[in-house]
Design a protein that fits this description.
This protein has about 180 residues and is mainly alpha-helical. It contains seven helices and no strands. The N and C termini lie far apart (about 75 Å).
Length: about 180
């Protein structure tokens, strides 16, 4: 593949690869770095691309592999970085705490889903991918992605209701103790 072809591929797919990586890592800088590395690796291994899948899917496979490598590297180093600056907040502390708890609960429930439903939910919620794009990434069609996302939402709702029912007797016990 010529250099000009790779440049046009970058123009066409860089944004989508970035969104995919961002949905995995939830960090803009990491997603940007891994997007660049994805295209570097693609240039280096273009001779191994056999056309059995769409180029976009092939690029996302490279990106996912790079993300896994990044996770391994992070697990080996495990160094914490602290900032001297206090981040500015537009929300009140109480609101941020509630949102943080709700977000934590959502991701905890998402983690309980089976693959590929979990990956579909992550791609849709954090990567803001369309159902068509999700289908392409996972080698399926748009309808499959849409149906599995809907089923995932139902399962999350059921899990949340089930947890609330389990917590209800505990709350009633606390009320009686007051």
């Amino acid at each position: 593949m010529r250099e000009q072809d790779m440049a046009s591929l970058y123009q066409e797919y860089a944004r989508q690869v970035y969104k995919y990586l961002y949905s995995l890592c939830h960090d803009a800088d990491t997603a940007e770095d891994l997007t660049q590395e994805t295209f570097c690796r693609a240039i280096g291994s273009v001779d191994r691309y056999n056309g059995s899948c769409k180029i976009y899917v092939w690029l996302c496979q490279i990106a996912k592999h790079l993300w896994y490598q990044e996770l391994e590297k992070r697990n080996k180093t495990k160094s914490a970085e602290f900032s001297d600056q206090i981040p500015a907040s537009e929300l009140a502390v109480e609101e941020k705490t509630i949102l943080s708890e709700e977000k934590f609960q959502l991701f905890r429930l998402l983690h309980l889903l089976n693959e590929p439903m979990r990956e579909i939910m992550y791609l849709r919620l954090t990567g803001e991918f369309s159902f068509k794009e999700i289908g392409e990434i996972l080698g399926r069609d748009e309808t499959w992605a849409r149906v599995n996302f809907y089923r995932g939402k139902q399962k999350l709702h059921e899990q949340k209701l089930q947890e609330e029912k389990l917590q209800e007797p505990e709350l009633q016990k606390r009320e009686r103790q007051k």
